[in-house]
Design a protein that fits this description.
The protein is an alpha/beta fold. It has 3 domains: about 170 residues, no CATH class; about 220 residues, Rossmann fold (3-Layer(aba) Sandwich), CATH 3.40.50.10260; about 60 residues, no CATH class. It is built from 14 helices and 8 strands. Strands 3-2-1-4-5-6-7-8 form an 8-stranded mixed beta sheet, sandwiched between helices. β1, α8 and β2 form a beta-alpha-beta unit. The longest helix is centred in the C-terminal third of the chain and has 34 residues. The N terminus is likely disordered. Bound molecules: ligand NPW. Ligand NPW binds next to α6, α7 and α8. Keywords: Isomerase, Metal-binding, NAD, NADP, Nucleotide-binding, Potassium. Its EC number is 5.1.99.6. GO terms for molecular function: metal ion binding; NAD(P)HX epimerase activity; nucleotide binding. It catalyses: (6R)-NADPHX = (6S)-NADPHX; (6R)-NADHX = (6S)-NADHX.
């Protein structure tokens, strides 16, 4: 009889004894997962290698092995398991409630993920590329990182899980074989993210009404550090490099500040492409420059920023960037997360003077966007619907893009508060007086008014979502303390 390697080679999680209720649920879960594992074992060889179905099958196998069996004994209000307690975290598939259980699962499942992937890569009649095996391992490593109690970093780890999954989607990165398979960068995602940033900056500088100022606009882009050892680090800076190139193609002038260049080949290529377009690349923010900058783009830190002090040279770069922006009255634009802000908690410095005028959230807004006051865009139009569904991304986190646009300005409740509040009040009054706006829209079939209606719904729903997440965040922080 064929024996599934993960169940033999790797020890089960051990530790505190489980209470009867947990034993009961874990018994059925165990039966279920072994049943599914063996069925999939026989299915796997007949699914062609390199296909999405096969990759999905392996992904499912590992997920089944991850089914939590440990949680009821420590269950608390914040549990994120489907079907238990409060609704799942918007990005998480599940998270066990005990830190110890999460650690055991993390170690155990990472090893199992590796064993499953490598076993099938080696034994399959139609060989699966080893790269896919590592990609699966990476996804589950990230998933398991979020398999712990909610902390202030949850949104980051969940976003990282989503990122890892996106980056290993066939066609996005693995087929490109950049560097080595493990170090393959999400070149395509970064290209689309950078394009959406450039489009939003273009939109901001060109004005809403389409009355374009004839003067050539000049944008300064400050790009964050890259790191050799880590697979997915420094991508925020990469978005900035890509955006600079697109802005030049859009007819703007661009200057890049890139104090700590990444040695990764993809970043070297991006820099070369910018140099070929005669984009100046500086090491420091040109604080005394006589050059007029219409916009300053902060592409320094994204969701992987670790709060607790900004290391040099970026501490000085951020101070100079803000000074330059104020001196020149330039529009300060942040990519994904304002630099120095915690991905969840936002500005934890008590107002360190870093408050961008424009925020471009990539893929979906992070929790810190709740604190943002200004023009809010969403970019990164590459999230497959199935993945969005899996991560429970709600419609108000990802409003539908118009036509071929790569970014969309979303109505921020904080933005232009008076006008927005008045408009929203008018809308409510209209509804209350029985003059239902939606009925009007369906009668007149006016696409303009339906868009306004959609935006208002989006803003209200997003506001409610933010409040809910903020409450949850502070509750969890209080619990931890
Ligand atoms: N979601 C998506 O699908 C897509 C996301 N994309 C983009 O990727 C971004 C996330 O990128 P990322 O994970 O590469 O990390 P990111 O934030 O750029 O840099 C971390 C760097 O900062 C450093 N660092 C950290 N803390 C520090 C401190 N206190 N002081 C000083 N340095 C500090 C850290 O150094 P380390 O701590 O590792 O030494 C590391 O070098 C995301 O926000 C989005 O813009 C798109 O490109 C593609 C699609």
């Amino acid at each position: 009889m064929l024996v599934y390697p993960g169940s033999v080679f790797w020890p089960r999680p051990t530790g505190r004894p489980r209470p009867p209720q947990a034993l009961k649920s874990s018994f059925f879960v165990t039966i279920l997962k072994y049943l599914l594992t063996y069925i999939s074992f026989y299915l796997l060889p007949i699914v062609p290698a390199g296909t999405e179905r096969r990759s999905h099958l392996i992904s499912c196998r590992v997920s089944w092995k991850c089914l939590p069996v440990d949680s009821p004994s420590t269950g608390r209000a914040g549990d994120k398991q489907p079907g238990r307690g409060s609704p799942p975290h918007p990005y998480s598939s599940y998270a066990p409630s005990s830190g110890a259980a999460a650690t055991r699962l993390n170690a155990c499942v990472s090893m199992k993920a590796l064993s499953v992937s490598v076993f099938f890569a080696v034994t399959s009649p139609r060989r699966l590329p080893l790269s896919s095996a590592f990609a699966q391992l990476n996804i589950h490593r990230h998933r398991l990182k979020s398999a712990r109690p909610a902390t202030s970093n949850d949104m980051e780890t969940d976003a990282a899980a989503l990122d890892a999954e996106l980056m290993s989607t066939p066609g996005f990165s693995l087929e490109q074989r950049v560097d080595s398979q493990l170090r393959a960068l999400s070149a395509q995602l970064m290209e689309l993210a950078g394009l959406s940033v450039a489009e939003a900056v273009y939109d901001v500088l060109s004005g809403h009404e389409g009355k374009e100022d004839q003067r050539k606009k000049h944008v300064l882009l400050v790009c964050g550090p890259g790191r050799l050892q880590h697979v997915h680090k420094g991508n925020n800076g990469g978005d900035g490099l890509v955006a600079a190139r697109h802005l030049v193609h859009f007819g703007f002038d661009a200057t890049i500040v890139y104090p700590k260049r990444s040695p990764k080949q993809h970043f070297i290529n991006l820099v070369k492409q910018c140099e070929d377009l005669d984009i100046p690349i500086l090491d420091d923010v040109p604080i005394d420059s006589t050059q007029r900058f219409d916009s300053v783009v902060d592409a320094i830190f994204g969701f992987s920023f670790r709060s607790g002090g900004i290391r040099e040279p970026f501490a000085t770069a951020i101070v100079n960037l803000v000074e330059l922006q104020k001196k020149q009255d330039a529009v300060l634009v942040s990519v994904d997360v304002p630099s120095g802000w915690d991905v969840d908690g936002g500005d934890l410095t008590g107002g360190a003077n870093f408050h961008p005028d424009v925020l471009i959230s990539l893929t979906a807004p992070k929790l810190s966007a709740r604190q943002f006051v200004g023009r809010h865009y969403i970019g990164g139009r590459f999230l497959p619907p199935a993945l969005a569904q899996r991560y429970n991304i709600k419609f108000y986190q990802m409003p539908s893009y118009a036509g071929c646009k790569q970014s969309i300005e979303v109505m921020n409740a904080n933005q232009d508060r008076a006008n927005w509040a008045q408009a929203y009040q008018d809308y409510l009054n209209e509804k209350e007086s029985g003059n239902a706006r939606k009925e009007e829209i369906s009668c007149t079939d006016s696409s303009d008014s339906s868009r306004v209606d959609e935006e208002e719904d989006w803003a209200a729903a997003y506001q409610a979502y933010c409040e809910e997440k903020e409450k949850e965040f502070f509750e969890n922080t209080a619990n931890e303390n």
